## 1
Amino acid sequence: MRLIPICMTCSAALASPVLAHAGLEQTNSFAAGIAHPLSGADHILAMVAVGLWGAIAGGRALWVWPLAFVTTMLAGFAAATLGLYIPLVEPAIAASIIVMGLSVALALQAPVWAGAVIAGLFAFFHGHAHGTEIAAASVIPAASVIPYAAGFALATAGLHGTGVGIGRLATGSSWKCALRALGGGIAVFGGVALIGG
């Protein structure tokens, strides 16, 4: 039964477009914000991997790393909507998939603050990609931006929670091996996205 959530997550990721930053037609609603992180495998895999890594680390990492990701992602979003240009956003997003996947695959142990910095650094780029879409769509009024940001923040937290849940379910040694293999697969996907991008 524990394999079901893992398979569902992988299936959803593989059925999605590789990168979800080509621009959305509608970026001015709460529903669009919720849908956006679910529209590309890059978002799904990176955000689930943050939760998986937090579950492997345990303790405060379970909530600090996802919280750092969501908070810094919103900062990146705000920076982009205000017109701050950041180069290499897509390669940084692909790199986030690789690093987070490897962190899971290697069961990387890190101090809580270091994991928060790593998650936050990559989150800034994910948020910037969201904000660039808003800026490109000329949807700058707060009345439109805030519901969209709230939607993608909530969806992101949900993806982190999915990763934490899968990680917490994988308690047996065979399941831990499967979890690490999943991390390796996520890293490989990120490598392919980086080369293909």
## 2
Amino acid sequence: MADIAERLLRSRRIDPLSGCWEWTGARKPDGYGRLFRRGRQLTAHRLAYEQWRGPIPPGLSVLHRCDNPACFNPEHLFLGTQADNIADCIAKGRAFRAKGSANGKHTHPGTSQGERNGRARLTEAEVVAIRSDRRGRAEIAAHYGVVPVTVWKVKTRRSWAHVEG
């Protein structure tokens, strides 16, 4: 598994405020880092847990203390059942009611907007900063670890339109 540790560490951006090790490679639609090993798609947070914390017993999930699906910092990960995961999601206010849901069913947070979207690469504070930044798109993109078209979409409000500033 040493090759996995190298791959994981090579594909991380450490958030200085949260300490999250954010996956910089491909992500699943729900925001979890994904990589392939021997033809199988695996998630970064599960691999990190196994690499640095130990085996994952059958029937248990790897949960995040930080609520950041892209994070694979082993210090932010813990084991729990799927019921624990759902209860944690609801308790932390990450679940939300589906539009038009008369029965009040909560849905997975991966379909929300802004920072609550598991695929988000930026925070609202970064979006505000990008909009006021006068450097070139490529330079701004490099600073925030995104591609130039993301900067263009932020500045033209084609993405993050709900953010003021």
## 3
Amino acid sequence: MHVVYTGTKVRIRPFKDFTELNTVLSADYAVPDPFRGPRWWPVKAREEEFEKHGMLDHHDYSMSAIERLDTSELVGIEGCGSCEVGQLSINIGTYILAPYREQGYGLEAKQLMLCRLFENYPIEAVRASTMAHHHRARKGLEACGMHLCGRLRGIEHVAGDYYDEVHYVIFREVWEQLPVRQVVKRGAA
């Protein structure tokens, strides 16, 4: 059983099937990421990975569907890194399909993932990274209560230029003070 976390605009939940996941990933990989350059993951490899654990593998990474509440449309993916015993922090990442960006879905999905991770794992921090020039992503991370904690110089090479990657963190004691915790609904998938 996996707990579904529901906010006021979206819920994060397990993917129903591979087709649902593949639709979002195909849209993501169809257009080169202007911040990190082109990416790809062969469809057969995606399907094999999904068949193993439905993208909910606590030893490697996990991906949840971001579903709009008003239309039940999938608007993106909320992911997290390994949830191994003894870890003090977990990384998260958010991808929102282009037509749904700048509508608050990514922000709320991040907040829901913070709740899921802090409520289910004995961690002290959640981390995220983005490109220094990706101002929308940085604004969303900061709106979730995360703060800048580091920078890697020239880590990405895109279209002939080098770009910095910035790292954000939120600690458990900060998350515990966020009002979103009282709004979130939790339920079984």
